[in-house]
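A quick word before the example. In earlier lectures we treated sequence and structure as two separate objects. From today on, think of them as two lines of the same record. Here is PAP2 superfamily protein written that way.
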Amino acid sequence: MAFLPAERFIILIIATFALLDACLLLLKGVGIDVTGYASLVACGAFLLGLGQFYRHVRRNDRIGATAIAAGLFVLFTIVGSIFNYLLLPLRFQPIDPVLARFDAALGFHWPDLVTWASQYPSAGIVLQMIYATSLPQFVVILLILGLGGRTRLLHHFLMTGVIGALMAIICWFFFPSFGASSIYGLSPAVTEAVPLAAGPHYGAQLVELGRNGATYLTPSNVLGLIGFPSFHTVMAAMSARFMLRCGPLGLPFLLLNVVMMPAILIQGGHNLADVLGGLLAFGVAHALADAALRQLERTQRQRRSGIVATPGV
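And the structure line, produced from the sequence above:
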């Protein structure tokens, strides 16, 4: 099997996470839905194999790169999610009250926003639908970039997501947070009027999980643990930024993800600080991914030219 430099970079991260997951599962004695996760791993492995088939047998680099990217995305999502759960219970005090005070200094109060939104139930339903498009957008973008022959852009997209996720997990480990919905309550009239993907009940589940940790992991019941920085915001910024680099096709993605911002606040139960942190995380991840990709490409060119310095030379 042969992989491109960016693909090998992501495979290394996936392998590292997989090793850490295995060690933590044994050390913590956490149960795991082997069948459920095995089916997802098999899906990712199938996509990798399909990509290799099209790259070497059918000689279709576009389909090959797309299938491999999709496989890597699936596998990274699995090992990253398991690792995030295995960091529980929390080692540090949640910073949500601090983030709420930051929001207050900016004149933002989450319950007031949701209460106002409850006056427009139809808009709440639309925002819920938009909030649920994050992962489907990723799939569509993988297909557009890969099948469109924009392999470098595809790899930059993937690496930005991987590095952004790593940054979010590391930040969350040392400065845990579960979002505004974990510290505020809402009246029944408000929660009945606005369907919330992550309301106070969801926030309470996260707080309980953070306090006691997980005893059994299954892909059928995965909660979004990270409040700050909002990875939903990272994903939205990625979708808009990379699709805009494809020309006019990016305009619908830009508009969709502009509306995604209030959806993240209302439906995702996030602090305003979470969203601002997500935008910052995206900017850093985008720059780091570009620098890493350039270095990988430079190293590959040097190897092909036979000018890579050997140790001691």
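Notice the following. Residues 308-313 have pLDDT under 50 and may be disordered. We will return to this example when we discuss secondary structure assignment.
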